[in-house]
Each structure stands twice: as C-alpha cells, then as structure tokens.
Amino acid sequence: MADNDKPVSGYHLIAPRYWPTWLAFGLARLVILPPYRLQLAVGRVLGRLYQRFTGYRRSIVRTNLEICFPELDNEARRRLEDRFFESLGMSLIETATGLWRRDAYFENLGTLKGLEHIETARRQGKGVLLLSGHFGSLDFAGRILMRHYPSCFTYRELRNELSDRIVKKAREKNCRILIHRYDLRTFIDALKSGEVVWYAPDQSQGIKRGVFAPFFGIPASTLKATTRLARMTGAAVLPFDIRRLPDARGYALEIRPALENFPGENEVEDATRFNTLLEAQIRDHPEQYLWIHRRFKVLPSGESKLYPPEPRRRKK
Questions:
Q1: Is omega for the bond preceding 150 within 30 degrees of 0, making it cis?
Q2: Residue 236 sits in which domain range?
Q3: In angstroms, rounded to a whole number, what is the distance separating the alpha carbons of residues 102 and 170?
Q4: Domain count, the chain
Q5: How confident is the model at residue 217 (pLDDT cuts 50, 70, 90)?
Q6: Which range, of 36-40, 156-160, 230-234, averages the lowest pLDDT?
Q7: What band does 4 get if pLDDT is binned at 50, 70 and 90?
C-alpha cells in the first residue's frame, strides 16, 4: 500500500504491532501525575537507562561533544554526556506534560521575558519569527509561551503513525496553528497575517535545503528557509532562549530584540549569524541541547563522515 493510500479510519492502529505504542502512551499519561519534582527525578532515571542501552545513539552524542567541545578532557565530556542523558530523560516527561496537562499546571513553573519585543513588531504590522534551537523542554516551554502569547508552532511527522497522530492531535490543541516544517505556504500566510511563529531551523536536512555555515567551528548544513521566510514576509526575527532551571525551579524563557539588518546580504551570512546565536545559548546550558541529532551528518564534498553507520531498520 502506498503512503498516500493509508487507511483513514484508524482501525489498523489497534493491530498488535501498535500495542507497545499504546502501552508507552498509557504509561506517559500516568507518569505526569506525580508532583513536578518527582517527575524530573523519574526522567533522570529514564535518561540514564536509555544511555546504558542505546549504544548507537550514545556514540552520536559522544561524537557531537568531541566535535563541539575539544577544549574539554575526556572525563569532563563524559560528565557532560551523563548530564545530557539525564536532561533527555527529563525532556521525555516534559513533553508528555506539555501535551496533556491543563493550562493551570504551568502557571508557576516558568517566566517569560521580552514580550515587549513581540508587541513592537506587531505595532509595526509585522509577523514574528521566534528563532530557537532544539532544546529538551520544547513542548513544556510551548505551553508557558502560550499562557503569555498565542503562537504558532512547527512540527515534523513521526515515523510511527500512531505516535504521530496522538502527538499531532495534542499539539494542535495547544497552539494557534500547527505548521508542517515543509508547508511554506501556511508559514508565509501566518507571518503575513501577523502571527507569531516559533521556528527552530538547527537540524540538518540535506544540501538542497541548507547552506554550510560554521557551528562550533565546523561547517554545518543550516536551513536557508529562515532567510527566505523573512525576505518574503517582512517578519521580525526574534531570538528565543529556553532554559530549564536547576533544582526543579521551573523554566526561564526570554525573547530578545529583533535582529537588525536581517535578512542580510546572503543566506550564508544569515545562517552564520543564527549559528553564532545558538552556540552562545548552548554554551550557557550545554546539557539541555539535543545532542542526539546528527548535526554534522551532511558535510562539504570530500570530507569524511563523522558518525558510525546507522543500524538497519527492521522492515515492517
């Protein structure tokens, strides 16, 4: 059956191969019920278990940390790796919380600075592109943002159809408009109509969609859509920082002033500017960045591959 011929009824999603997914989401709905501090403690344990049993993903994290933090010795990088996996485990709990807890739950768990920069752009008749990176607390931070300002979010589909349906349905309830990462028309329409769109263009998506710009001193394929969107819509581009505070004290979100002279003369200049901003955020709280992604999987022609081969996926 071709992808565009998938059943629409949903009855196929009760097949035995989806039972583990149903079980996982059922457990996720339960694990978000305890107090916030206990949730994070459970998340840290889950993260360390995942670290222990996922050799391939662990190798990706180690490679990324070696590339980006050559100034650290092996022991320091290993401690950072441990903190990352604990953060990753917490982010799983935060994602479930962001998807399904009621609005009142987020009232005292985060602060947001810089709303005046959105207001300035809106008074000028501009849409707003909130420019961020893939940090672990995205869904949780999104709920905090929505308490202060109605915003649109972007998404990418998940490989597991059941997971994709469940997560997409929950996210659609928690934002103004949910925009697919490749749906340029909806993106443009939202920005031209003055919407606030949260956008994280920091994952490698091939040569055609990106340009090479330095990231931690390494040429990294960086999406050029940021330049294109800003140029086509006249939207204000505002850096957006997300940080989980220590000791279960919640989250600090900050919207910074609009980038001046953006877009610049070319896409490489703009990508370099974004990567520089993102690198500064990462260095402030490195364990919270999504190091499990193969950020440097696309390299300039002729350079060696940095990551080990990906294990073959089992055919369905």
A1: no
A2: 15-288
A3: 12
A4: 1
A5: very high
A6: 156-160
A7: very low
Assess if residue 254 is contained within a domain.
yes
pTM for this structure? Answer: 0.91
Q: Note whether residue 316 is domain-resident.
A: no
Q: Is residue 304 part of a domain?
A: no
- 45: tokens are 């344990």
Q: Give dist(CA 63, CA 16) in Å, integer.
A: 36
| pLDDT tens profile 44-83 | 999 999 999 999 999 999 999 999 999 999 999 999 999 9
Q: What is the 3-state secondary structure (H, E, C) of the chain?
A: CCHHHCCCCCHHHHCHHHHHHHHHHHHHHHHCCCCHHHHHHHHHHHHHHHHHHCHHHHHHHHHHHHHHCCCCCHHHHHHHHHHHHHHHHHHHHHHHHHHHCCHHHHCCCEEEECHHHHHHHHHCCCCEEEECCCECCHHHHHHHHHHHCCCEEEECCCCCHHHHHHHHHHHHHCCCCEEECCCHHHHHHHHHCCCEEEECCCCCCCCCCEEEEEECCEEEEEECHHHHHHHHHCCEEEEEEEEECCCCCCEEEEECCCCCCCCCCCHHHHHHHHHHHHHHHHHHCHHHECCCCCCCCCCCCCCCCCCCCCCCCCCC
Q: What are phi and psi of 311, to 5 degrees?
A: -60, 145
Which among 101, 78, 77, 88 is positioned nearest to 46, based on CA atoms?
A: 88
User: CA 143, 144, 150: angle at the middle one, nearest 5?
Assistant: 70
Would 142 be classed as within a structural domain? yes
